[in-house]
Design brief:
Largest sheet: 5 strands, mixed
Structural class: alpha/beta
Helix content: 25-40%
Strand content: 5-15%
Number of helices: 16
Number of strands: 5
Amino acid sequence: MKSPGRPSTRREIERLFWREIAKGLTSEDAAVAVGAAPAVGTRWFRHAGGMPQIDLAVSGRYLSFAEREEIALLRVQGAGVREIAQQLGRAPSTISRELRRNAATRGGRLEYRASVAQWKADLVARRPKEAKLAGNERLREYVQDRLLGVIRAPDGTVLPGPQVPEWKGRNKPHRKDRRWANAWSPEQIAARLKIDFPEDESMRISHEAIYQSLYVESRGGLKRELVACLRTGRALRVPRARSRNKPGGHVTEEVVISQRPAEAADRAVPGHWEGDLIIGLNRSAIGTLVERTTRYTMLVHLPRAEGYGTVPRTKNGPALGGYGAVAMKDALATTMTIVPDQLRRSLTWDRGKELSAHAQLTVETGLPVYFADPHAPWQRATNENTYWCSLGGPGFFDGRGPAGSSGDSENTCRKAFR
């Protein structure tokens, strides 16, 4: 084995880095937390596609870096193999094998150094395995065609599809940039393989393997540009913990849902409300307020401002639709002032920009406002269930009436309460 030169960052540090990522930290903050450079953390995250490629659980079967440091210190003091094994609680054969395999050989002498030994152990521990899509061309073409949503003519030729901008390695936020609207998801592809090839076991792959081939550079098999065909359009995977209880925009650290009083969770004390904005046909809007304990519901009137439909829309101009930040604040203040003070304990809203003036609303009404996590409607379940089961969902606006009028209230409510 050639001399390693300057040892690279230990796998233990990289393992700690991914644990910090799982807590919701950014790649730069996670790197600083484990003593690595921010640029190193960014490189780790991007090369791995946002997914850890090492096992985060430490096995006691293998020697740790701390144990290797202890071996090096005891070796310098002249301790023998059995004495070192006794102090570390390891088998003598383990210590003997460690000193023989992972000793530094620079200068023609065998010297045991903890950093070099750890580097050699990490190098041997890597057992690269060829990705399934990289070794099965037929399976790879099947997956790529469906990720791209390839459409073929009756004679079998592939239709080129619309022209799309060149992928630059970043997220694709606009649906118009996708090649076809009927591109398959990895879950659909994995399930369809069993139907199209029921007898061919080689034509099998899990949806997670497809995601890893897309996101992880070292996996190979699929082109990275195909991430633009995914429905999320993400170039990297984003840990779920990053979006939980994370302030952003008009949502500060003081108003995330984790700061809401604990009494609101058990519904024992009335006065905690949940709200939402509902937009209907022709951009009509209405606000809903539901009290968590009694399920008492109030509708917030949001009339359109003067000039709507006649005054041209201007960037950063007034929100004439009636549900801008100022209009929503005024409408909520008018509605909540009729409620007794003891029943104005808190209001939980989603991350919509219509309540960006929440600080002024709290000043005017004394009602603290808290915001749920992104994409977490179950944190406002009372309001969501009231909308679907009582108001009738979208039918409240388009003239179909409540869900019960079309005979589907039972199914709608069952879905809402899941």
